[in-house]
Amino acid sequence: MFPNFLGLGFIFLVLITLVHSKTDSKDVIALNVMFTSLKSPKKLKYWEASGGDPCGDGWKGIDCSGSSVTEMDVSDNKLNGDIPYQLPPKLKHLDLSKNGFSGTIPYSISQIKTLKDIDLSHNQLNGQITDMFSSLSNLDYMDLSFNKLSGSLPQSFGSLSSLSNLYVQNNQLSGQINVLAKLKLDELNLANNKFSGWIPNELTKVKKIDIEGNPWSTGAPPPGMTWAKDVKSTHMGNKGGLSGAMIASIIMGVLLVLAIVLAIMSKKRSSFSSNLVEEPETPGRRKSFSYIGSNPLSTELGADKHKSYIDRQSMDSTNPDYEALQSSGPIGLKPSLSSRLKTFRSKEPGNNASSQRRVCFEINAYTLSELQIATNNFASNRLLGEGSIGRVYKAKPPDSKVLAVKKISSSFFQDGKSDKFSEIISSISKIYHPNVAELVGHCSEQGHNMLVYEYFRNGSIYEYLHLSDDFSKPLTWNTRVRITLGTARAVEFLHENCSLVHRSIKSSNILLDMELNPRLTECGLATFYQEASENRGSGWCAPECINGATYTLKSDMYSFGVVMLEILTGRMPFDSTKPKEEQYLVQWAVPQLHDIDALEKMADPSLRGLYPPKQISQFADIIALCLQMEPDFRPSMSDVVQSLLQLLQRPSASRQQIDDYDY
Fold it and tell me: Which residue ranges does the chain devote to CATH 3.80.10.10?
C-alpha cells in the first residue's frame, strides 16, 4: 500500500508541474501593479510587488489556465481604496466582494471581454455606473449589491446577451429599468434602491425577482409594462448565487471524478512517465491596461515651433453633424504616384449610393524655380513654422490657390541618400483618408527636397487651444469630440490599413479645414523623425521612447492620449509658466481623471461648463487607457474609435440636448 501512495504522490507532483506553467509576463505586471496600489497587503499571500510567478507559485486567490490568469478571488480580505485600474486581461472570474473598496467601477473592466462572472458586492463603491458594458458579451453573472452606487442603469446593460444573474440590491440606483427588458435573466434583485416607473412585461417571467423597497410608479402603466404591485417578489437574502444544494452537488461531483482519476492512475503507475506529455502553449494576444498616476518625463524643451500651414478646402461639402460623426467615413488607398492622378470618393451622411461623388486632381512635380518664385525665394516673411525635420513656407503660385511647402532639411539626405525621398513620396502617395492632409505635389532638385500641401487658413488645434486671444471663439465641446474622433480615424487608418507608425502625433500636427474638420499632417514621415534627435521630451512623447526604446503603434497611442488631454483641459503638454507640480500635463492630470469633482475643475475654462458631465467622464476614461506606462496595456486605435462612438451614441440624449453644447 505504501508504494502505491508514493506512486500517486509522484504523479501529482508531475501533474502540478505541467499545469503550473510560467505566468504570462503581462499578467505578472498587472498583478504587481495591483499589489503595489493596494499598499502590499499581507493577506495576499505570496503576492509580490515585482516579478514572481502567480500561476506557478500559488499566489492567493489566483487561478490560471495555461500561462494566463483567468480567476481572481480576493474576497473578504479587508482591502480598501479604489479598485486597481489594471487587471489581468483574460480574466473569466473576478471576485472582489466583502472588502472596503471605494470609488467607481474601473473602466478597464470593459476591456476584459473574456469575463464570465464578476462580484463587487459588499464594498463602498459609489457614483454612477459607467456605460461601458457593451463588449462583455460573455458575462453571465454580475453582483454589484450592497454598495453606494447611484444614478440610472447604463444603457449598455442591454447588450449583456449572456447575463442570467444580476444583483444590484441595496444601492442608491434610480430611474427606470427598461434597459433590462430584453435580457434572458434567471435571477434579478433590484431591492432597496430608488427605482421608479413600471416593470417591463418581459421581466415578470424571470424565475426569481426581488423588486421590493423601491418607489415604483402607481399610475396606469404604459403598454408593455405592469404595476410593481402585481409582481411577486422572491426574497433572495443578501445576495444571489449558488444555493447550498448546488454547491454540495458540485463538490460531490468533483470528488467522484477525482476518485475515478486516482483509480485509473494507480493502475497505470508503472508506465505513467511515458504517457505524460506537456502540450505546447500558445498564448493569445490580448490588451491590458494599467492606471499609472505619473511618469517622470524628460525636461527637454524640444517642442516644434508651429504656425498655421496647409489649408485644404473641404472636399466634403456637407456640414458634419452628430450623425456624420457616427458614420465610418470614406477610407481607401490612392493610386500610386506613377499614375499622376488620384481619385477619391466621399460619402454624405447615410448610405445612399447616389450621394457618392468623385473628385480627381493631380499630384504635381514642381520645379525648384516654380517654388522659389511662389515663396519669394523662401523669404523669411513667408516662413510659417519650423520643426525638427524642416521648415514650412507659404507659397503663392500664379493662377493657383495658396499652398504650403515643407522643405525637408538636407541633413536627412547626406551620403547619397537621394533615393530615400522618392521612396517617401511613393509611400505618402498611397495614403488617402478624409482626415489626413493630402499631398498635392513635390520637388526634388539640386539637393532640395520638398513636399507641397494645400494651405489651411484655420491653422492647427494647438493654435485654437493655446494661442487664441480673448476675441476668438473657443472650440465647443461637440467640436472637440468631433476633432478627436476624426483624428482617431486618421491614425486608425495609418495603423490598420497602411501599417504605418505616425511618430509625431501632437496638436500642432492636427490642422483644421474651413468646417473645423481635422486633417492629420506629417503622415508617412516617420523615417525622418526616427533620425531627428529633438523629437523627444516635449510632453507628448511616450515614456519608453524618451528612454530610447523602439517607437511602436502603442507609442502613437500615448501621444494621442496627450492630445486628448489638451482637448479636455486646454493646457499645453509642457508649460513652464505653471507651478512646478503642474508643468507636465500628464503628471498633473492623470491621477485626477477618475475624480468627477476634479474633472470639472480640470476642464478647459473656455468651455464655460457647457459639456455633458457623463461624456466628459467617459472621455477621461479613454485618456487614462491611452496613457498607460506599459505600452502593451494601451488600447489599439480601433478600440479608441469604438469607445468614442459609444460616447456619442447616448440614447438618452435628444438632438436638442446635443445642440446645447454647440453654443
Answer: 23-244
* Predicted pLDDT at 542: 86
Q: What angle do helix axes 553-569 and 477-496 make, rounded to 10 degrees? A: 170
- What are the DSSP calls for 418-475, one per residue? HHHHHHHHHHHTTEE-TTBPPEEEEEEETTEEEEEEE--TT-BHHHHHHS--TTSPPP
- Across the beta sheet with 117-119, the strand order is 62-65, 68-73, 93-95, 117-119, 141-143, 165-167, 187-189, 208-210
H/E segment holding residue 174: strand 172-175
> CA-CA distances (angstroms) from residue 280 to 14, 17, 276, 417?
16, 14, 13, 46
Give residue 249's pLDDT band: very low, low, confident or very high (50, 70, 90).
Answer: low
CATH code for the domain defined by 322-659:
1.10.510.10
CB 142 within 8 A of CB 117: yes
What CATH architecture does domain 23-244 belong to? Alpha-Beta Horseshoe (3.80)
Mean pLDDT of the chain: 76
Highest mean pLDDT among 12-16, 81-85, 524-528, 575-579: 575-579
In the chain, list all ranges with CATH 1.10.510.10: 322-659
- Buried/exposed 332-356: b ≥16 CB within 10 Å, e otherwise: eebeebeeeebebebbebeeeeeee
Is 635:449 a contact under the CB 8 Å cutoff? no
pLDDT digits (tens, 9 = 90+) for 616-639: 999 999 999 999 988 989 999 999
